Amino acid sequence: MAYFVGMLMPEERALLFRACWDHPVAKCRRCRCSFRIELAADLFQRLSHLRPRCRIDLTDAAGEHLLSCAAATTLAAQRACADAQTIFATAADLRKEAQRLRDAAGAARAESEAARYARENVPDSPTET
Predict the structure, then answer these.
(1) Spatial distance between the Cα atoms of 47 and 5, rounded to a whole number of angstroms
(2) What's the CA gap between 76 and 119, in Å, rounded?
(3) pLDDT of residue 1 exceeding 50
(4) d(Cα 79, Cα 11) in Å, to the nearest integer?
(5) DSSP 2-54
(6) φ, ψ at 98 (rounded to 5°)
(7) CA-CA distance, 84 to 97, in Å (whole number)?
(8) What's the helix, strand, coil split of the chain in %, to 5?
(9) What is the pTM of this model?
(10) CB neighbours of 49 closer than 8 A, spacing ≥ 6?
(11) Which of 4-8, 52-56, 75-79 has the highest mean pLDDT?
């Protein structure tokens, strides 16, 4: 069953290079040869994983390998955890900044109300007759 149409996404290609450099990532159904990441590409036809000799598109096989490869899924999970930690830290920083801005807005509002109250309640100066 083919899930990958045309080229793999850049993140998927990067994952292949990082996690699967030491083992085959695709097998040609025609000649039964296994291939590592040395597959060719045809950017004009938007094909990223071609068998070097006969130029059969092995993108589906490489994509299916990503779904079943323990090394790729482990690396992807580690990356997802690192991304989640970064997002969590960023969210915490944003919450702190939002609280600081709310506090500053509250202080500015209190100062503004105090200044308005002082202007409105200035005692009338005695009139000279």
Answers:
(1) 9
(2) 63
(3) no
(4) 11
(5) ----SSPPHHHHHHHHHHSTTS--EE-TTT--EE-TT-EEETTTTEEEE-TTT
(6) -65, -40
(7) 20
(8) 55, 10, 35
(9) 0.52
(10) 8, 26, 39, 40, 41, 57, 58, 59, 61, 62
(11) 75-79
Residue pair 48/16 in contact (Cβ under 8 Å)? The answer is no
Check pLDDT > 60 for residue 43.
no
- Residues 6 or more apart whose CB falls under 8 angstroms from that of 28 comprise 34, 35, 51, 54, 56, 58, 61
Residue 106 to residue 114: CA distance in whole angstroms: 12
Looking at residue 96, what is its pLDDT?
98
If you ran DSSP here, which 8-state letter would residue 1 be given? -
